[in-house]
Write a structure and sequence with these properties.
Shape: globular
Radius of gyration: 18 Å
Number of strands: 7
Strand order of the largest sheet: 3-2-1-4-5-7-6
Number of helices: 8
């Protein structure tokens, strides 16, 4: 499942990418396929070990181009083990809503991002997330769960305060908000409720087949009930400094997305490499 739209957030082969709070590695895998030098970092050691296995499988299957590299490592988002200006690109997807010191995380991301570099931040969207919270306390009141709901302008304000310059936003996963409303209504751990099972089958069919009808439906629903809010920004150059790496300019056009899952239990689904891609759960 990709929440970041790589047509709005282009990568060049050889870009140094940090996927912060990578979870199961969905964005890290895509960056690796695109020829980047990827570091996937998360505090969950079990997920990191699984991501490392997928990186190895991708390399063995020839899914990553020559020159690409990928490393999975445990780490703390509030104390990143990297020097200043280490990365061309930073991605943090469905993570900041979990962290009390979100300003501290933003400061660390800005520190390790080079001047002229790009950052993508995704969080659950305010409206659909409020519905989930209203329907179910169990949806968010779990260990490591969501502790806040961002309004879009609030997130952009915090990004500007951290020294970033936002250049674009959009919403993603419009088909998936109703699924999570059903989950919250029937019980977040109750996968056997008939409406939940039926809607899940629809989403799996959409993942596997990507029919035009659901692609158009998602595009229409994203501005209205998209599950995620996505913001893109750059780190300004210091006065008088130049950009030696020549980062690409942002493009347009939203990308298709696979089912969105909240990170309340830190079990975000991943787009598996072709080396071992199976039926979606």
């Amino acid at each position: 499942m990709l929440t970041v739209d790589f047509s709005r957030f282009p990568l060049a082969p050889g870009d140094r990418v940090l996927d912060l709070g990578c979870g199961a590695g969905r964005h890290a895998f895509e960056c690796y396929r695109r020829g980047a030098q990827v570091v996937a970092l998360d505090r969950n050691g079990e997920e990191i070990r699984e991501v490392a296995k997928w990186f190895a499988a991708m390399k063995e299957a020839g899914e990553a181009p020559a020159g690409a590299s990928a490393v999975a490592m445990e780490g703390d988002a509030l104390a990143l083990p990297f020097p200043d200006d280490s990365f061309d690109v930073v991605i943090i997807s469905e993570v900041m809503e979990h962290i009390p010191d979100d300003k501290g995380v933003l400061a660390e991301m800005v520190r390790v991002l080079r001047p002229g570099g790009r950052i993508a931040v995704t969080v659950p969207r305010y409206g659909p997330e409020k519905v989930c919270w209203a329907l179910s306390d169990a949806y968010h009141e779990v260990e490591g769960g969501h502790i806040r709901i961002y309004r879009g302008d609030e997130l952009l304000g915090k990004m500007r305060e951290a020294g970033l310059e936002p250049y674009g936003t959009h919403h993603a996963h419009g088909l998936h908000s109703p699924y999570w409303w059903l989950k919250c209504a029937f019980g977040v751990d109750n996968d056997q409720a008939l409406p939940v099972k039926a809607y899940h089958k629809l989403l799996v069919w959409d993942i596997m087949k990507k029919p035009l009808a659901t692609r158009l439906a998602e595009q229409a629903l994203n501005p209205l009930i998209g599950k995620s809010f996505v913001a893109y920004a750059t780190k300004p150059h210091l006065p008088g400094a130049g950009d030696e790496t020549g980062a690409a300019e942002p493009a347009a056009e939203p990308a298709a997305a696979e089912p969105a899952r909240p990170a309340a239990k830190r079990t975000r689904s991943a787009t598996k490499p072709a080396a071992a891609r199976g039926a979606a759960k």
